[in-house]
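Renewal narrative, Specific Aim 1. Our central claim is that a sequence can be written position by position from structural information alone. The example that follows is taken directly from our test logs and has not been curated for this report. It begins with the structure tokens describing the chain, in the order in which they were read.
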């Protein structure tokens, strides 16, 4: 089980008769994470509320499928996975920024030049 994936044959894509090592949803997440890096570099990232909204299609689709007899399609799994993967990269960026801001506030408690810390922080975030 790669990527924490069940890799069920009926929920996976095939290429030249060979099954992908991960299911359609995980394939979408991986594609989204790979695409999310250049997207964030070129266009930046949206507000945190938008990022959380981007995760909802996967959560709803997977949750409804898990709790009911509804069966999602592989293309829907792929699309929701891509959106979730992009959002995950944005969440990593927010986490990174938050860690740096917390570290800067802690350093300000022990450093005699808080403006220097603020200038250094601007370099990292």
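The sequence written for that structure reads:
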């Amino acid at each position: 089980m790669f990527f924490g994936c069940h890799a069920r044959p009926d929920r996976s894509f095939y290429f030249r008769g060979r099954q992908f090592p991960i299911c359609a949803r995980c394939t979408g997440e991986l594609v989204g994470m790979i695409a999310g890096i250049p997207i964030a570099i070129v266009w930046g990232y949206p507000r945190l509320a938008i990022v959380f909204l981007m995760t909802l299609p996967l959560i709803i689709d997977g949750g409804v499928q898990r709790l009911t007899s509804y069966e999602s399609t592989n293309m829907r799994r792929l699309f929701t996975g891509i959106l979730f993967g992009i959002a995950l990269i944005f969440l990593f960026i927010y986490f990174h920024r938050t860690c740096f801001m917390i570290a800067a506030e802690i350093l300000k408690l022990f450093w005699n030049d808080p403006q220097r810390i603020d200038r250094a922080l601007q370099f990292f975030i």
